[in-house]
Structure formats: C-alpha cells, structure tokens
Design goal:
heterodimer; A: 1064 residues; alpha/beta; Rossmann fold; D-amino Acid Aminotransferase, Chain A, domain 1; Dna Ligase, domain 1; 8-stranded mixed β-sheet; 7-stranded antiparallel β-sheet; globular; B: 370 residues; Glucose Oxidase, domain 1; 7-stranded mixed β-barrel
Chain lengths: 1064, 370
C-alpha cells in the first residue's frame, strides 16, 4: 500500500547538539527523512536545537524551529503547528525519548497526532531491561544471563548456574567501582563481598562474563506488512568489552561461516518481527568464538550510528527507506535508488570490504583516560572501502589524520616487546591496533597477541600480512610487481619509497569501482566510487557515459568529526555542492566520513569515498580531470591540500594557496598586518623551551602558547609563569616535532568574531558576533552572541574597516573568518582564516544570508553587487541569536572541564529571541542547563578573579541562593558583605567540597583555577565531581555572570516565544 | 603475503577471447566450463559442494574467500561438482573454531582447478552484460595455442548433468520417531534438503533420478521431494515423462529448483535460459498469495516461463521481486507445489524454511485421507 492518506503534515524531531555517542549521523538520517517526506508532498515541521545541521536548512522543511529539545518545547511546537503525525525514529535517542514521553502522557492522542516509526510498546520492549529480557525469552533469543543479588551466598549460587567467569557489577557505584571479573568461587567471594560493601543499597549484579566473544551487528529493516530484510552485517575488530562506537568495525562480518551468519541473521529478523518495528533496527550480538553459543547484547529500534555506517557501506539508504516505511510504503514498493531496477526488499551484496575506524580526541585531551570500555569516547569516525582488508585498513588509517601513513607508530616502535606486552595487558586503549602491529613487526606471534587481546586471529593475520609486505619492500629491488602489490595493499607511493629506500619504478593511478548494492549483478547508475588498483576504471566509464559537456568541480570534505572540526564543515561542503549544481557544474564530492550528508551518494554528481591525502586526491583528479577544485569548505583537512594542489597546477577556486599561506605563516602575516596598519597582540616564534621562557619574560605574563598550524586551539595554553611554559613546551614538542611554537602576549579583552564574504573588490559582513567569555576561552567554547551587544559604534566601525582591509589585502575570494580582541578600547586581530568557519551555518540561518551559496558563486566570477549585496556590514535583524557550546565531559574521564584556549566542546545549540536574555535562556536550556532558581552555589575562584566574583555572588545571594566557598574565596566574599559558608578543601579533610557536591545541596558551581589539566589537582577533582553529579558547572566568571543575569530576569521558557526561522 | 610471493600464474580465457591473468590455487591444469558468478558473501563451502554447479566455473563476487576455512559438517554433497573456482583472494590462515582445513587444500583434495588474484568485478560485469559464457581456467600460458583452446571453449556445453550427479542406489535415512516417509528424487540433491526433512520427522528414501512412478508406488511414501540439480532441465526427457506419471499417484509433492523446473515441464509449461541466472543469497521473492517478500538463496541459470503454465493445471505462486521471473508454482491439477529458490538454504537465508512445514502439513492431510 502506498502513502497513507491520513498523513499530511509531519513533525520531525532532531537529535540536538553533537555529543559523543550522538553525532552527525542523525543529521544525515534527519536530512534524508525530511527529503523523503517532502518528495511525497508532505508538509514538514522540524525541531532541532543544533544550528550547524543541514536538516535545519530552509530547503529541508517547511517550518523550522531551532529550539530546545525539551518536552515542553516540543509540545508547544505541536500546539502551534498542529501536525497530524510525528516521526520518532530518526532523531537518535533524544528524538525517540521525547516521542515516547509525548505518547506516554497522552499528549499525542489528545492532539490527534499519530506516532510514526515505532509504537511505545516496541520501544518499551527494546529499552526496558526487564521487558527486553522477557521479550527475548519469549522468542527464545538468549540474553546475557544475569541476576541481582544481595548476599555473597546468592552470588555464589547463581554463578554455579551460569558458570565462571562472571562479572560483578555493584549497583550505584560510579564507574563500576568495586566490580570485577571472578574466575572462580574464591575470587567471587572476595569481589562480591567488597562490591556489596561499596554499594549504597548492598546490591550487586552477577553477569556471565562474555568478554572476548565476537561482537557482531546486524542492521535490519521491517515494514508494516511484516517484510524483513537485513541490510548489512558488521564485525568488530575488538571483541566484546569495547563499545562498538570505539571499535574498529569491518563490514560484512568476515570470520563467520554461513551457519553462524544465518543463525544471527535469523535471530535479528525474529527480534525485529517480535518488536514489530516499522523501519530500521540495529541488533548487537555476542558470539562465542569456540561454539555456536550467542547472546543478544542490545537492540536499538531506530536509525543509529551503525545504520549510517551500514548505509554508506552498502549504498542502501536506511533512513530514507525507514521514512517511507513510516508513512505507509512497504519494502516491495520502494525502488532501490542505486540500481533503479531492484527493490528495497533485497539484501545488499558487497564485493568489497569496509572498515570503520574511530576518531578520538585524546590528542587534545592529554590527561584523559584513554582506556576503552562500555562508555563510547570517540567523537567521530572514518570509513574506508577496499577490495581487501589490508587495503581498506591502510586507507582508514590515513583518513583518520593521525599523522601516520601506515600502521607504524613511532612511540610503539621505540618500545621494547616487554613494555608493549605489559601495556597491552593493562587494558584496551585507542591505539591498540598500532600497538599490536608493532608487536607483530617485532616478531611476537599471533597466538601470543591473541591470548592477551582476544582479537580474532583472522584480523591479526591480516595485520601480519602488512608487516610482511613492509619487510618485503625493505629487502631487494623494488620491482614493478612488488610496487603493484604494495599499491593493492593500500600503500602510498611516498610510503613505498620510504620503506624500500628506492624510487618507485613506475607510477600507477588508482582506478575506481562502483558501490552498487548488488556486487555487479545489476547495472547501476549510482555515482558512488572507491579507489583500488585493478584494470577497469568504472568512474572513468561513468563519466564518459554521462558526459553532458559540463565543467567538473571537486569539493574536498573535512574528514572525520573531531573537536574543532565538526558538522559545520559538512554543512558548508554540501551547500557548496548544491550551489555548484545550480550553477550548471558537475559537482564531485570527496570525503571519508560515513556519518554525514556529504557522503550521501545523491548529494553531488559523483562521490569518491576515499582518504584526503595528496596522492589519494591526485588519483581522483587524474580520473575526473576537473575544471577546478574547492578547498575552502572542508576545514583544515581540505585547506592542508592547498599547497600541494597549487604546486601540481590544479585550479583552486576562490582564495589562492598563496593567500592561505600568507594568513597562516606567522612572518608573512605580521608583514601583512603592518601593511594594513592593524595591530595584533605582540608575539614571537620560538623553537626551544629556553627561548620560550626568555620570550615569555620579555612579553610579561600571561602569555599564550601554541604550535603553528593549529586546529581548534590544539595544544594551546595560557601560561602564567615560567613553570607553566616549561611544562607545556614539553607536551607541545613531544607532539609536534620541528614545528615552531608561537608565543603571544595574552590580552584579556572582549572577543569578537566576524565571518565575511569577499569578491576581491567588495566585502559583506553578515553580522558581528561577540563572545560572552573574554579572550582566553577558545572561540568554539564561548557563548557567542549575534548581533554584538556591547560594542560601541566606533569599535564596530573599526572592525568593519579592518575586515575590509584584511579581506582585500589577502585577496580573499569567498569566505574569511577573522577573530578580534577588543582590549582597553582598541581592536586587535588575533587570527585570520581565509576559509569557512564554525559559525557560518548559524550566522547564515539567523541573518538569512546564504553565505556558502554566495561564496561559491563568487568563486565563479559573480560579484556581491550582482548578487544584490552592498559592501560592508549587513543591517542587523530583529532577533538576537546566542550560540551555546555543548560538551561531552561526562563521557571523558579525567578531562578538566575548565574552559581555556584549547577547544573542548563537541557541539552547539542556538537560542533565538527578541532580547539577549531570552535568547541566552533558550540557548542554555537547549544545551541542557538545568536553570534552578534556588539551592546552593559553590564558589572557588582564583585570586585574580575574586574581585569580579563579588557582584556575581551578590546576584545569586539576592535571589536567595545559599553560597558556599573555599576559604580564600569565602573570606573575600564575606569581607565584601556577602554571606558565604566556608567549605574545606579536599586536602583539609572531611567534610569538604567533594562531600558538599555529593550532598545534593549544590545546584551551581563556579570554579576557576590558575592551573588545571592535571587530574590530581583539587580544582579538577571538584569540576569532575560536579560533572558526575550533573551539577551545573561554570568555569569562567563571564559565563557565571551571564547565567546569573538570565536567572535574575525571572523569565522562563514559558515566557519566551518560539521562532519559526523560515519566517525570519 | 606468502601467497603472493610464492604463487604461480594461471589464466582465465573466456569464449569471447578475453584473458584474465591471475594466480593459481587448488590443482594445476586446464578445465573448461560455463563461467557463472555467485554473490553470496558466506557459504562458499556449500557452493563448492552443491551439485547444481556441475559443469560450471564458479566466480565469487565477494573478494575474500576461505576466511573461516572448511569443515566436515557443512558439505552439501560428498564431493564438489564445480569445474573450476575463481576468487579475488583466498585466505591461507582461516579462523573459525570449526575450521579443519584451508580452501586451497580442500580444492587440491577434490582435484579442482582454482584461479585467484583477478579483477572478479570486471569478470562479473562482463558476464552480466554478455550473459553466461564458456571459459577455461588454465595454468599453462594460453597465448601459445589460443585458437585451439578457444574453439574447444566455444564447443563446450553442460551435458548429461543430472545423470552425472545423481546417486545410483536407493538409500534410506531414518530419524528418531519418524512420522512421515518421503521419497527424495535425487537430481543432485543438497544434503540440507534431506536434513530439513529429517528434522521434521521424515524418514527420507533417496532414490536415483530416473526412478519411475511404479517404483515409488511400491515404496508407498507420504510425500515426494523433487530435488535441485544441474543443467538444462529440458534435456531430461525421460525424467519429465516419469514425473507426469508420478504426479498421478496423488502423493503430496514438493519441488525445489531443478525439481521445480522439471515438474513445470512435465505439466506442459516451458523453461528458458536466463541471461546470467540468479546465484546468491539475497534474492527477493514475493509470495503472491500472502503478498509478503522473502529473501532467498538461489542458484539457477534456467527459469520456468510463468505465462506458459496452463491455468487449468496450476498458478504461479511466487515471483522474483527484481526481474519478475517465476519463482514458484502451486498446482491445482495435482498435489504438488514447487519453488525455484532454496528453502533449505545452506548457504543463504533460512526465511523460507516454513515451506517444509507446508509440505508436512500436506502429508498430514494426505495421511488422514488415506
């Protein structure tokens, strides 16, 4: 049956800000859903608090609310828009939970709104622990046996039933304190005695230990008629114990015989049939490596990160199909868009393998605990497609941008076998695969490594193949045969030359194969390609076959999502592609991130799913023969390619490579500023620690230190003393060898940010953004306000003028992002990035100026005048928009939450209102701040900020909050007539700040410290504790002040109007 | 790595003159066959031992074959009937708790010529565009006597397929507590058909392909199973003749694959050769009665022409969702239903195993009547 006739207007709930575990994949799913709904002629209402998404774009829905994803707000949107249905399964856990709450309260029924995608019973059966267990038991699908016990004897009794080893998990202890694995009764008695003692309710869960079992996933789809298919199977490189989001994953499953494969496939189908899911569903299994025994680990009755991966891995668009199913279609009615001939009810067959490799932020969070376990820690991922495991693995490693071009990592090469084995035994860390590789290279046997890691021998043997290839390269002549083998194994020419010590005897360009869902069985016209070293170039054939005489333009994407380079660059790349198509060009996208809209095969005219290194890119260029390429929208990943591309004579559209260099090279940049007569904080370039200390003394503390060529303030710090400089120089130099370090005078003024578009003659500033937090907090972590609230006319004019001078002097053609600091009435330039920036999507949406669209047109010769824009600052709109950063601190153990020059946020929310306070209120609520109006506030700030703390503390005090502070802060506040209770520091014994935070009396904590980062420090411990206890923790006085003002305004979400941004 | 360094060359020569140079595995020599491809991502051991592949050189589109080795439990027959075997890459360090051997040793043991290291996707695309084609795998450089090899290749045809694979003796397999007695006509049956029946309480009496109605009547079974098998169905004129008589016995019949085609021919319908067949574990089939779609395992180069079936005899019950070819027939004139796909799976999805239950239900009804 086709489209249900009772559906006309659908509300789509998005997933909100990007956090670890819920990232760009839901923008991909949501955007697909919106498009599928619109294609059916349905009216689409969208709510999502994340402004950097593509789904919140005007082209995607008819009514768009960038509003907090709270139950009340969603209800209000339903009351305003009166949709007849709500789509629940495409907005991640956030969208699903909200939908279920709406249904459970009867709100949907009373407002005649139908729930599409999953009914509450389905969700309950999948998500409630007991209901899930009961459901699985009913259909005979095994779960991991477990039981809650309250005595040691009961624990021992149960262990006899399920057999050792067992895991003991004490109830309500944080991070699993007091738990462990027991291999026999004696150990169990020990561990459970301890666990019961530590558990506040004297309860432990005894669970069968399945660590070391294979972790297998199936993506399945079901329709209303009960048709069920599996889209893809996936196998984790890391056995059970590591979160699948943190595991290297290969698709399809490779170590399963048909019998095992079909057993789990059938189980998946049974599960989805019993749950009656209508749409996509993810089933995770643990499979015993030495028997047919298996257990269902988890079922997600919605689209997920895995379904995005499965979609990209197979070419089967799960979210799109799931949406069509939700509105009434069945699988046999939906055409497979890839082949145009087959139907959605067939299962994809792959003739390649896919590897997903996670991207972690540990390069940024130096002190974070790198151990991987049940809590996901990766911020993003890459996918690589190859005709062999080895090839895909090498591509994945390159795509992850770890600074390596093979599995060889210097730090592991330098360790001894004993050290490596010792480290490996301690637990799983993010770089384990590289460690394993190093061990194999040092001659340690597969058996030995398997014994420790339990990684399947199949994977280890493949890694050993890479080791052997590298050894083969190193010995004897580099013949053409050897060269070709290395290419087929995924090695770059430069790597082959380095390892063999010889010049490559020839150079082969890669050929491209099509991802067609059917292993070549049917003719497909889908322009989705990956590189390999074979004879036939299907991309070239495709280009010749579909030649329309259009010029081809390649847009380079931004690779994996990481802190500092997130979904906003996907937004920019995708917009650029859309505009290119509109302009009559053939737009070719090149990227390796499976979570995004940019790698949807129908976004561009062609998609190349490959790494973004110079050689990989050269190969694509050789096949495509483009008219030009665009690097401006792919973040640093694409910008990094500029020099190479320019050197090889490729036409770089927009700002030239030379201009980019002029902005990034310190000396050239200084010259430029001098020419333009623009001041910047004084600074120098140094190479050694000694130099650094000398220069810092000369500039006077505080100073800002950072390596040149930075991303998201990576390794950037503010130093207050010689000791700080020495400590951080050690860290920086250990990461970035032979890269100069920049030291600047640190000015603690107001930070202002501008995104501008320049056509070489005129320039347009859509809006000036002011940061709530003063300079020193990374711009990505600051609350950013448009339009600027506190700048005088003179300052604004200066900023506009400086922007003009810089854009023209740099010959910017397209976008430029400039950061200023306003310090003691003067404007200084901090940074110029002649490319798209993090703020482009949000400022485009709130000003209504399609920045990427304009910038793209300008690259092809249009002028701002022709496009209807005056030079200068665009008039301010009626609304104030506030961007509030969102962090994932609860997922990253031991990371100091204090904001600084190094970016820490993973995502952002937007609040739009008629006043600053209203907009900020929305932004804070959207970001998850629980704005309680009573309770306790704990204050502990560094000496330099105590004076500023007085009026803020006063505001809290006047609102009736109880104030608590550590001795120094407390006596300072009390001296200033603000009644404050003194709390002991941790070192001063109990009861202290930690006990107070545990007590539940505290709702807000304001904590700043001169030093941070080291997990052992008191201030860091307090901040970590507040995260654990979900206490609102403010680490900059400016944020605290802004929040106090919002509370003081007395307004709540109910007082603030919701805004449909399509009407701005 | 050792694979690449130590292997010797082998070639595939297609009837159209295309040559693919790769590497040798399995045994050395030259073999001619009909080159086909299968898209199943698992189940290579089942494929290699499926008698339906008699006379064919089988290409795996999935690039990594042999990952989980070979074991003694997953054979679909006692030996391999493929003429040759082509993969992109085979695994010399298989990993699976049931693995007893590598695929290379397995091919060597069964005397099968293998070729690896070619662009199997290019080959698949060639076959898809041109249709199945004869070809030869050889470990001797074919350049020297290309003309004579090509004429040999072009003259090749799969003949006497069923006679080459069927057993010659009657064998009885009795499970505990047998409830039904089923005659399994062996046109080159896969073991899991037998197992599927035994798992449902059937005593299975496997009889040679040319067994007559009279001989079956003497056995007095509750049901008759027509197995899968290789080759052009229309070639089996005697069997088709026999089936016409067997159907008259009124005993419930269930046909799979070749059994389905032979029954259709016996009932007056026609078969045709498909351009490149259906071989894989992902074929969607629509049950025209319930409207539901099932994912099925398939391996056939011929199909029944649905329109050629006399509506007085029966009706098409299943269609292939992709190309709409006939995938099943329910007869009204005789007590029989047949499917083109493989409900016994192995390899492939188990989604249509319920058809065996339909068969036992028919036997229940038949026994009750009796």
């Amino acid at each position: 049956m086709p489209l249900r006739s009772d559906i006309k207007k659908v509300l789509v709930i998005g997933s909100g800000p990007i956090v670890i575990g819920q990232a760009a994949e839901f923008d991909y799913a949501g955007a697909q859903a919106c498009r599928a709904l619109k294609q059916e002629g349905l009216e689409v209402v969208l709510i999502n608090s994340n402004p950097a998404t593509i789904m919140t774009d005007k082209a995607m829905a008819d009514h768009i609310y960038i509003e907090p994803l709270t139950l009340d707000t969603v209800k209000r949107v339903i009351e305003i828009e009166k949709p007849d249905s709500v789509l629940s399964t495409l907005g991640g856990q956030t969208g699903l939970t909200l939908s279920m709450q709406l249904a459970a309260e009867g709100f949907l029924d009373s407002h005649n709104v139908k729930l599409l995608g999953a009914d509450p019973e389905t969700i309950h059966k999948a998500e409630d622990r007991q209901a899930f267990k009961d459901t699985m038991e009913k259909i005979g699908e095994p779960c991991i046996p477990s039981k809650v016990v309250e005595t040691v004897e009961d624990a021992v009794e149960f262990a006899k039933v399920i057999d050792y080893p067992v895991i003991v998990r004490p109830a309500f202890t944080l991070g699993g304190t007091g738990g462990g694995i027991a291999n026999n009764e004696e150990e169990l008695r020990d561990i459970s005695t301890n666990g019961l003692r530590l558990s506040p309710i004297t309860q432990v869960l005894i669970e069968k230990c399945i660590s070391g079992w294979k972790e297998i996933e199936f993506e399945v789809i079901r329709d209303r008629k009960g048709n069920v298919i599996t889209v893809c199977s996936m196998e984790n490189f890391d056995p059970v114990g590591v979160h699948t989001g943190d595991s290297i994953v290969i698709a399809p499953a490779v170590t399963l015989s048909d019998r095992e494969y079909q057993m789990l496939r059938t189980a998946s189908l049974n599960i989805i049939s019993e749950l009656k899911v209508e749409g996509g569903c993810n089933c995770q299994f643990a499979l015993h490596p030495e028997s047919m025994e298996y257990a269902v680990i988890e079922v997600n009755p919605r689209v997920s990160r895995s379904s995005a991966l499965a979609s990209k891995a197979t070419g089967y668009p799960i979210a799109k199909v799931a949406t069509r199913i939700a509105i009434g279609y069945t699988l046999d009615e939906i055409i497979n868009a890839v082949t145009g001939k087959t139907y959605a009810c067939f299962e994809p067959a792959l003739d390649y393998v896919v590897i997903k490799f996670p991207k972690w932020a540990f390069d940024k969070f130096v002190y974070a605990k790198r151990t991987l376990g049940t809590q996901m820690k990766a911020t993003g991922e890459v996918m690589a497609i190859g005709t062999s495991f080895e090839q895909a693995m090498m591509k994945a490693v390159r795509s992850t941008e770890l600074g390596v071009d093979s599995m060889n990592m210097k730090k592991f090469e330098e360790m001894s076998v004993e050290e490596l084995l010792g480290h490996l035994k301690k637990g799983v860390e993010d770089e384990r695969s590289f460690e394993v590789f190093a061990l194999l290279k040092k001659g340690v046997s597969i058996e030995k490594i398997h014994e420790i890691t339990l990684i399947d021998e199949w994977f280890l043997d493949k890694l050993l193949n890479l080791v052997e290839l590298e050894q083969w390269l190193a010995e004897g002549e580099l013949t053409e045969d050897k060269y070709l083998t290395a290419k087929q194994y995924g090695y770059l020419d430069s790597t082959i030359e380095r390892m063999s010590g010889q010049k490559c005897p020839t150079h082969r360009h890669a050929v491209y194969k099509m991802v067609d869902t059917c292993a070549g069985e049917f003719k497909a016209e889908t322009p989705y390609f990956y590189s390999t070293y074979d004879e036939e170039n299907e991309a070239r054939q495709f280009i010749d076959r579909t030649e329309k005489g259009k010029k081809k333009v390649i847009v380079f994407g931004s690779g994996p999502i990481r802190i500092g380079q997130g979904i906003e660059f996907v937004y920019c790349s995708v917009h650029c592609v859309w505009t290119l198509k509109e302009l009559g060009y053939e737009a070719v996208i090149c990227n390796n991130n499976p979570e995004t809209v940019s790698t949807d095969f129908d976004t561009g005219d062609r998609l190349y799913f490959d790494p973004l290194t110079p050689e990989d890119v050269d190969n694509i260029i050789a096949t495509e023969q483009p008219y030009g390429v665009v690097v401006q929208f792919g973040g640093q990943t694409a910008i990094k390619l500029t020099r190479h591309l320019a050197d090889s004579g490729v036409n770089i559209l927009g700002t030239s490579a030379d201009s980019i260099d002029a902005a990034e090279d310190r000396e050239r940049f200084d010259e430029l500023l001098e020419q333009c007569g623009i001041p910047r904080p004084e600074g120098f370039t140094v190479m050694t620690t000694e130099e650094a200390v000398k220069v810092a003394d000369k500039l006077g503390y505080p100073v800002l230190l950072r390596p040149s060529y930075v991303l998201g303030g990576q390794n950037m710090i503010i130093a207050h003393s010689d000791q700080d400089v020495v400590e951080y120089m050690d860290i920086i130099t250990s990461h970035m060898i032979a890269n100069p370090v920049l030291i600047d005078k640190y000015m603690m003024g107001t930070e202002v940010e501008v995104d501008a578009i320049c056509d070489g003659k005129d320039f347009l500033i859509p809006g000036i953004m002011e940061h709530v937090e003063r300079a020193g907090v990374h711009s990505g972590d600051s609350i950013s306000v448009y339009p600027a609230q506190n700048l005088s006319k003179r300052i604004r004019e200066t900023i506009v003028e400086y922007t003009r001078r810089l854009s023209l002097a740099l010959n910017v053609v397209g976008l430029v992002n400039i950061q200023y600091v306003v310090y003691q009435g003067e404007v200084y330039v901090i940074e110029v990035n002649p490319r798209s920036s993090r703020t482009v999507p949000y400022i485009s949406k709130v000003t209504g100026i399609p920045m990427v669209d304009i910038a793209t047109k300008i690259k092809f010769g249009a002028t701002l005048k022709e496009l209807g824009y005056e030079s200068g600052l665009y008039p301010e709109g009626d609304y104030v928009a506030v961007k509030v950063p969102v962090f994932s601190f609860e997922k990253l153990q031991d990371v100091d939450t204090m904001l600084g020059p190094e970016m820490k946020s993973t995502g952002e929310c937007l609040g739009i209102g008629h006043s600053f306070e209203d907009a900020l209120l929305k932004g804070l609520v959207a970001a998850g701040y629980d704005l309680k109006r009573e309770g306790g506030v704990l204050i502990s700030v560094r000496d330099s900020e105590k004076r500023e703390m007085v009026p803020i503390a006063d505001k809290f005090s006047r609102m009736g909050f109880d104030l608590y502070a550590t001795s120094g802060t407390a006596s300072y506040l009390n001296r200033n007539m603000i009644a404050t209770n003194t709390v002991r520091k941790i070192s001063e014994g109990s009861p202290n700040t930690i006990d107070l935070l545990e007590s539940g009396k505290i709702h807000y904590m304001i904590s700043t410290s001169a030093k941070g980062r080291m997990p052992a420090r008191d201030s860091v411990k307090m901040r970590r504790k507040s995260i654990e206890r979900s206490i609102c923790s403010l680490t900059a006085v400016d944020t605290a002040n802004a929040l106090a003002n919002v509370l003081l305004s007395g307004r709540s979400m109910d007082d603030v109007k919701l805004v449909d941004i399509t009407k701005i | 790595m050792a694979l690449i360094k130590d292997s010797s060359p082998a070639w595939l020569v297609l009837a159209d003159g295309q040559v693919f140079r790769g590497r040798s595995f399995g045994v050395k020599g030259t073999v001619i066959g009909e080159v086909v491809f299968t898209t199943g991502m698992t189940g290579y051991q089942e494929t290699l031992t499926d008698p339906s592949y008699f006379g064919q050189i089988v290409t795996q589109t999935f690039p990594l074959i042999g990952n989980y080795g070979v074991n003694s439990q997953d054979f679909e027959s006692a030996q391999s009937y493929v003429s040759g075997y082509i993969v992109r890459e085979w695994c010399n360090a298989p990993s699976n708790f049931r693995s007893e051997d590598s695929i290379d040793h397995f091919l060597k043991r069964l005397n099968i010529i293998g070729l690896w290291g070619i662009d199997t996707r290019r080959l698949t695309r060639t076959l898809r565009e041109a249709g199945v084609m004869n070809g030869a795998i050889t470990t001797e450089d074919p350049a020297a006597n290309m003309d004579s090899l090509l004429s040999e290749i072009r003259a090749y045809a799969v003949r006497n397929a069923v006679a080459s694979v069927t057993g010659t003796e009657v064998r009885t397999y009795t499970p505990e507590n047998a409830k039904y007695r089923v005659v399994l006509l062996d046109f080159g049956y896969k073991r899991y058909i037998r197992k599927s029946l035994m798992n449902r309480g059937c005593e299975v009496i496997v009889v040679p392909a040319n067994t007559t109605a009279e001989e079956i009547r003497e056995i007095a079974p509750d049901g008759i199973m027509l197995s899968n098998g290789p080759g052009d169905p229309a070639e089996n004129t005697q069997i088709i003749e026999n089936l016409r008589e067997i159907a008259k016995l009124g005993i419930p019949m269930f046909g799979i694959c070749l059994g389905h085609q032979l029954m259709a021919l016996a009932m007056g319908a026609k078969t045709e050769k498909l351009k490149y067949g259906h071989r894989g574990a992902n074929q969607p089939v629509i049950d025209l009665v319930s409207g539901k779609t099932y994912v099925t395992s398939q391996n056939h180069g011929y199909a029944v022409v649905g329109e050629s079936l006399d509506t007085a005899v029966g009706a098409v019950s299943h269609n292939n969702a992709n190309d709409k070819t006939c995938e099943g027939i329910r007869y009204t004139a005789v007590n029989c239903f047949t499917v083109q796909f493989h409900p016994e799976a192995h390899g492939g999805p188990l989604d249509t195993a319920y058809l065996f239950d339909d068969f036992t239900s028919r036997m229940d009804a038949y026994k009750e009547e009796k």
